[in-house]
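Re: beginner question about structure tokens

> Can someone show what the tokenized structure looks like for a real chain? I only ever see the sequence side.

Sure, here's an example I had lying around. Input first:
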Amino acid sequence: MLELAILGFLYETPLHGYELRRRIAALTGHVKPIAEGTLYPAIKRLEKSGWLRRETRPGTGAAPRHVLDLTEQGRAEVRRRLAEPAELEVSDENRWFTVLAFLRYLDDDGPAQAAVLRRRLAFLEQPSSFFYAGDRPLRAEEVHDPFRQGVLAIARATSRAELDWLRATLTELDAAAAARP
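And the corresponding structure tokens:
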């Protein structure tokens, strides 16, 4: 998730580390704050892989800034990761939001984007439960704890909203693909 967020934000524009950290925190910070001790080793791994480069530019004050930018290989890696997200990136809501935040960079006029959205749709359409009686998943009407009922109500509302959005977006992408010569 962190590497995709780094690559995705740098796909948009070159950034210095502080600004990159701020943008990642705005996207994922409510879930998992990004510490410098996590961000900078990830940046070094991506740099070592040849996916990003660091340039020194004059700073606004006395100190120069290290600005990060994607290489062509890095841009290709972003598109690859978006076109082929791991199963956990489709099933885990927080990881999914990171994929979704950058999915527009699959600039193939929609088919690859639609394929990724269909994977998420298939995942959401599978029956699931948060609570169990032994090994048996409980149905919503079997949960009598008001707090667990709250979990279920919020999850149902969120899932319904996402399902509606996915179906509408897939309809638009499919219509656009059908209209192309």
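Each token stands for a local structural state, so reading them left to right follows the chain. The helical segments are 2-12, 17-28, 36-48, 72-83, 87-91, 93-102, 111-125, 146-179.
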